[in-house]
Specification:
Order of helices and strands: EHEHEHEHEHEEHHH
Largest sheet: 7 strands, mixed
Number of strands: 7
Structural class: alpha/beta
Strand order of the largest sheet: 1-7-6-5-4-2-3
Shape: globular
Strand content: 15-25%
Number of helices: 8
Radius of gyration: 16 Å
Length: 199
């Protein structure tokens, strides 16, 4: 990834709370049931939000015709993929096509649980370079280090410049930085660990 297209944060939580304010969201839709922090982030900044509800009868798979109607007047859409807590994974090709259909809307795709999915790299939006998509990635969950607070956002440089203005100073501590370097320089060991964890 281009370093200019990445913003590190104190876990994805810090970034979730910064994004709506940073990108100037006015009308947010959250695909739900899902992680409550998306709504809490909007509440913090007094940004109106509503839900596009997934149905148990559809195994929590999104109905994109309904979703299209639900986001018609929105400028920002939160989608957790795979979703927390339902575990539903949306096909990345379908989701990419949907995001590209609405270039005037910003889609936040939270991939915090994607490392648990087989062939996760094929499903990820990281590196796809879609101008209206922000990808959230957490290292805290797959590597069992929630206390270290390691997360990042990837987006176009125009978005990351805005987001960087709303990140707190000293947000990523030295122990977390050391852990990232340690993890990323042990590819063969890490690949085995991730594969065992997925199994």
């Amino acid at each position: 990834l281009d370093p200019e297209c990445v913003v590190a944060g104190n876990g994805t939580t810090q970034l979730i709370y910064a994004i709506p304010k940073a990108i100037g969201s006015q009308n947010v839709v959250i695909v739900a049931p899902t992680y409550s922090d998306y709504a809490d982030a909007c509440k913090m900044h007094d940004i109106p939000y509503r839900y596009s509800l997934l149905k148990d009868s559809r195994n929590f798979e999104p109905d994109f015709d309904t979703l299209e109607q639900d986001i018609s007047d929105a400028d920002t859409v939160f989608i957790c993929n795979p979703n927390n807590p339902t575990g539903m994974l949306i096909d990345s090709g379908i989701l990419e096509s949907f995001c590209k259909t609405f270039p005037d809307k910003t889609f936040i795709i939270d991939e915090s649980y994607l490392p648990f999915v087989a062939d996760a790299e094929q499903h990820s939006f990281l590196g796809r370079d879609i101008g209206n998509v922000i990808v959230l990635h957490s290292m805290s969950k797959i590597f069992r280090v929630p206390g270290l607070r390691i997360g990042f956002a990837s987006a176009s440089s125009s978005i990351t410049r805005k987001l960087s203005r709303y990140t707190l100073p000293w947000s990523l501590n030295s122990l977390a930085q050391a852990a990232v370097v340690w993890l990323m320089t042990r590819a063969s060991e890490i690949d085995k660990f991730v594969e065992k964890t997925r199994t």
